[in-house]
Prior knowledge:
Layout (H helix, E strand, L loop, with lengths): L11 E6 L8 H12 L7 E2 L7 E2 L4 E7 L7 E7 L8 H4 L6 E3 L6 E3 L9 H5 L6 E3 L4 E3 L5 H4 L12 H5 L5 E5 L6 H9 L15 E3 L18 H4 L8 H12 L1
Parallel strand pairs: 1-11
Antiparallel strand pairs: 1-10, 2-3, 4-5, 6-7, 8-9
Amino acid sequence: MTTLPQQTGRKLGLVIDLDTCVGCHACVISCKGWNTENYGAPLSDQDVYGADPSGTFLNRVHSYEVQPEAGAAQLVHFPKSCLHCGDAPCVTVCPTGASYKRVEDGIVLVNESDCIGCGLCAWACPYGAREMDQAAGVMKKCTLCVDRIYNENLPEEDRQPACVRTCPAGARHFGDLGDPDSAVSQLVAERGGVDLMPEQGTKPVNKYLPPRPRDTLGPPEGEIDVLAPFLAPVDEGPKGFLGWLDRTLEKL
């Protein structure tokens, strides 16, 4: 089994703002594109135009409708990928050492040449962040675009994960969460960033910024009936015989 480092030089990871994410899936598409054309074996798809299409994705966005204690329901978009946990069970369960956590920056990777596709790491991951590539027969996961962030041939602004670079809403942030003075650490402190499923004890590096309370207008309960102007009666006058009599007398 693979062992985890006692500590890492840095804790590179993502901070995802659930208040800003609009669920456009731009991060999903850019991740699929970059990791299909560059790092490791391509991310394959099966039966793309058939009745039961499937494919390998390292980043997915789930959408949930939640009902706050007060106010209208909200639609929350929840991006999810590998969280590069400090105590990663996917690493310690790997029988070949293919899954490992880097000492220098804390990124969790898979050595595809050593992966036998047993799937134990996928079973051990409580977040469902690993996917078996059906064509390659190896386990795939988010690499934090390790081939981008250290690539000196790229402009400085492009040396960040593809999902972060492409997010049109600025909902994704990348940096060293082990440095309390880094921009991502300060953002987590200011907004009260949280771990995903902390009860699992995996110590995820990635953090989530919770949605901000929504502004309320109108009555004290904060509800606005947007259809009220259209549902209001058009004619407030008398109905039936009295209405006919009233309209007839107006013509005299």
